[in-house]
Amino acid sequence: MMRGRESQEVPRGRSLDPARDDRRGGAPLRELARSRTTEARLRDRARMCWLASEGQRVSAIKAELGVADGTVRLWITRFNACGLDGLRDRRRGGRPPTYPPEAVGELLAASLTDPDDLGLPFGSWTLDRLAAYLAEEQGIAMKRSRIGEILAAEGLRWRTQETWFGERPDPAFAAKRGPLSASTPLRHRTAS
User: Fold this and answer.
1) Alpha carbons within 13 A on the beta-carbon side of 8
2) Are 76 and 68 in contact (CB under 8 A)?
3) Is the whole model's pTM more than 0.90, yes or no?
4) 188 is a domain residue
5) CA–CA separation, 55 and 49 (whole Å)
6) Phi (first) and psi of residue 157, to 5 degrees
7) Which of 65, 105, 156, 165 is such that its CA lies 20 to 30 A from the CA of 145?
8) Which residue segment(s) compose the domain that 70 sits in?
9) What is the mean pLDDT of the chain?
């Protein structure tokens, strides 16, 4: 009797014959077992079933592939029950996503939109600006760090916030800035 997730027992002398049963795999199983481009675990599972169909016993398959006999029996049982689909990983439970796909979509749409088009007083997004915009305008409370993770997962790269040092790209910056403080003396440049 197998231990673990499957309750069906695979008789010790049983072998598969997927070449005769097309609904179970047949030639696709052989191709999957020999594939060099598919996932390694899926290929190994297909190989276990293919070797069983060739008449090899579980002990020989176990020795050839370096896995436990319970593993071989599990995948043979799953293949018998579900065919090739039985060799794929089943969906596993876990914590559901913190943010629904709609919220992530709003984040991506906002990040790809020019802030000027939204009437915002800045010309580029930062993570803090995105977080504030999402909270105020969209009603989506999302942490700055999570925004960075989502954008990185989508392949978007962000530059750091521009500082006030250096030459300004706006030619009217001095006029917009206003007069300098009277307590700051003007420095005259000397020719060198």
Assistant:
1) 12
2) no
3) no
4) no
5) 10
6) -110, 140
7) 165
8) 22-87
9) 79
Q: Look at phi and psi of residue 52 and say left if phi exceeds 0, alpha if psi is from -120 to 50, else beta.
A: alpha
Q: How many residues does the chain have?
A: 192
Query: Which residue has tokens 């069906």?
Result: 8
Can you tell me the mean pLDDT for 91-97? 81
Indicate whether 106 and 70 sit together in one domain: no
Residues 30-40 have a mean pLDDT of: 88
Contact 127, 103 (CB under 8 A): no
Cβ within 8 Å of residue 134, ≥6 positions away: 106, 107, 110, 140, 141, 142, 147
Which pLDDT score is estimated for 164? 57
Could you give the number of structural domains in the chain? 2
